[in-house]
Amino acid sequence: MDASVEGFVAAVEKLGLHGFVLLRHGETVAEGWWHPYEPDTPHTLYSLSKSFTSTAVGFAVADGRLSVDDLVADHLPGGGDLRGMRVRHLLTMTTGHDAEAAPRMAEDPDDDWVRGFHGVPVVHEPGTRFVYNSGATYALSAIVQRLTGETVLDYLRPRLFEPLGFGPASWDSCPRGVNYGGWGLRLRTADLAAFGQLYLQGGRWQGRQLLPAGWVAAASAAQVPNAGADPDESPDWQQGYGYQFWRCRHGGFRGDGAFGQFVVVMPAQDQVLAVTAGAPDMQAVLDAVWTHLLDAAPAPSAAPRLEGLRIPALTDTAEPAADLPGREFRVADPLAPPQRGFRPPIDQPSRIEGFAVERAAQGWVARLDDEHGVHRFACVPGRWQASTLTTSDGEVHPIATTGAWRGPGTFELRVCQTAEPCTRTYTAQFDATGVTIAAEDSVGFDFTTHRPVRALAVSG
């Protein structure tokens, strides 16, 4: 294995990476996924979606449909005072808003997010202040859809996704059918690497100029300053901001999303790194990149896929008390837990209603009842078991589960969302009358520790 790659893998082993693809001089140097994550599973990208929305704007500009100097109000009429806001202000997060606009948009009583965007006060002169704002990216998505008659996803398919050989792709939409723009896109890790390579090559792909080189240069440049008061805090978020791309240290630029979804382009090294992850500390991931991958060595003739990368599965460390397997426990009065703001059902705490651990031919089955239904999670000793989980909105999510007895009265269950950053760990502590179930997420917005739930044994 390339020594730089070996050092990188060792450094990120415990940072929460799910998979990565490293390209050098246009060739794959190394790729790997930590089981139970798989290369063919599209991963939720969170704000890395923004760089793809920016790219859609770039195609629309190239098609002559708009200019970055167009007034936003000309493309998104809605009655609000946008005070001279232009498309470039949406792209550079300098809209003049004082805070994130997306939550306010979603409060519109008729689910008209464009009208909601107009209702967010513009308190600064557009172009004068950087404020990170997913609502601005939604506005870009809405503009592209109004101009083309297609969602950003559909507009990008023939222009970007198909030429670069992307796999399955999906993008969540607002109630009126506009892709979120600033979040909600799902792609494979390898697709992200190809996207970064396109930008590294100035928009050129296999002899064709797919995206104008001028757009690539403008999008990846430091269009506006974004440094905070403390230059030592998250330094890679203080190097300047382009058109929905961040500048990095060491002359690089990137698209990124919550919990470590990255496309890092390193022009000086002729390298691209794509990462999907559930990393609580995103700066630590980038620190590992700069420590180990600033290496312009030639690419090997045969690119290795790293084998044996695994997130440890659970194995029993104790025998359960004789009366616990198969015994059912119910919550007398299930309460709705605190909800995460502006997040889908898969990212919300569960309203636990019942719990049981049953013997299986191999290991155990943990049964968890909640507002989404009755779930039976296979727990085979030392293995992750692939399955699916259906949420109340009808969405089917790939998961992998592992579980084991950690003591005579303690069962631990982990549910890994293999298309998402989060793994949820349930710890069931049994006693004479019932069970207390605590839950904690590996990463999460707003909070990661859930309110404990008490369930009582069902008699008979």
How would you describe what is shown here?
It is a single chain. With 460 residues, this protein is α+β, with helices and mostly antiparallel strands. It has two domains: 3-292, 3-Layer(aba) Sandwich (Beta-lactamase), CATH 3.40.710.10; 328-457, Lipocalin (Beta Barrel). The chain has eleven helices and 21 strands. The strands form four sheets. Strands 15-14-13-12-21-20-19-18-17-16 form a ten-stranded antiparallel beta sheet, with no helix packed on it. Strand 19 (423-430) and strand 20 (434-441) form a beta hairpin. Helix 1 (3-12) runs antiparallel to helix 11 (282-292) and helix 2 (49-62) packs across helix 8 (152-161). The chain is globular.
Distance between the termini: 59 Å
Second rung of CATH, namely the architecture of the largest domain: 3-Layer(aba) Sandwich
Number of strands: 21
Regions with little confidence, pLDDT below 50 for 5+ residues: none
* Total tally of structural domains: 2
What average pLDDT do the residues reach? Answer: 95
Gist?
By secondary structure, the chain is α+β, with helices and mostly antiparallel strands.
Task: Spell out the blueprint of helices and strands.
Blueprint: H1 3-12, E1 17-24, E2 27-33, E3 43-44, H2 49-62, H3 72-75, H4 87-91, H5 102-105, H6 113-118, H7 134-148, H8 152-161, E4 170-171, E5 185-187, H9 189-200, E6 204-205, E7 208-209, H10 213-220, E8 246-247, E9 253-257, E10 261-266, E11 271-277, H11 282-292, E12 328-330, E13 354-359, E14 364-370, E15 373-379, E16 385-390, E17 396-407, E18 410-417, E19 423-430, E20 434-441, E21 453-457
Antiparallel strand pairs: 1-2, 1-11, 3-5, 4-5, 6-7, 8-9, 9-10, 10-11, 12-13, 12-21, 13-14, 14-15, 16-17, 17-18, 18-19, 19-20, 20-21
